[in-house]
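PROTEIN DATA CARD
Card holder: Nucleoid-associated protein Clow_01487
Chain length: 108
Origin: Corynebacterium lowii
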Amino acid sequence: MSQPDMQSILQQAQQMQLQLQQAQKELLASEVSGSAGNGLVTITMTGGGEVKDVQISPEVVDPEDVDTLQDLITGAFADAHKKVGELAETKMGPLSQGLGGGLGGMLG
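Structure generated from the sequence above:
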């Protein structure tokens, strides 16, 4: 059996690292929107989890029913957070799997 070519392995690792860094930049620059109540509340967040915008339909602003509004905001945030996770898996998943078990677990 021949020894693996270390230069080739290092080049592959450097290429994967560059691809991973690019995917991370794309993820952080992306935005997703989550909603609740059929769009009555919408939250937009970055791929890094920063909330950028909150839209609340006037029809759900009822001083007598603050609980419903709170539930809708919580639901919209959860939906947006789930979408960030899905986006991260789409952009980072294939790359983290290619890095083997060592780094793959840290990215998830």
